[in-house]
Amino acid sequence: MKPVTRIHSRTAVLADENIDTDRIIPARFLTTTTCEGLGRHCFNDWRYLPDGSNNPAFPLNHSEGKDCAILVAGRNFGCGSSREHAPWALLDYGIRAVLSSEIADIFRNNALKNGLVAIVIGANEHRWLLDNPGIDLSIDVREQAITLPGGNVLHFELEPFARHCLLEGVDQMGFLLQHADAIGAFEQQREAA
User: How far apart, in whole angstroms, are the C-alpha atoms of residue 163 and residue 155?
Assistant: First the structure.
């Protein structure tokens, strides 16, 4: 995992509410234990027509939705099952941050553990972002701040451990390995007692 300190991008908007993890990555694509290649199946049944061609009605298929690293999603994003493949698919697709007024807890935890910045914002700010797709935003993970066009700043909360892991580019195991010497010393001291 690479450190995540700042994300600057235009926004893509999926205003639908209750976008569940099966919509993000359909269950039939959960046959891998790595995230490589999952991006091509991200939003698969929504993004493609039955013949495999791009669905012109899907917002991320529009020119203004392409190559956006920040997704503004409708309320209750990531609900449904707890599949870790959902944040993997978004990351492999190129999404680095998801903003919504409500993000399912399990999805948010999985996202943050894998380097996808999942940010809950206020309802008024969320409505404004939904109504203004394609704007440039800067997300500063260290400062927990989103800079809007014109310089206005929104602040957001991240659990301190998740913030630390994002900034350091480590997952939970990586965090433990950073403290291997201290853990080993504790274990030796405990065995001696």
Answer: 14
Between the two ends of the chain, the Cα-to-Cα distance in Å is 38
Domains (range + CATH), the chain: 6-192 (3.20.19.10)
pLDDT at residue 64 above 90?
A: no
**Could you tell me the two tokens for 23?**
């919509």
pTM of the model: 0.90
- For 139-161, how does the pLDDT look when each residue is reduced to its tens digit (9 = 90+)? 999 999 999 999 999 999 999 99
Listing DSSP states for 76-94 in one string gives SBTBSS--THHHHHHHHHT
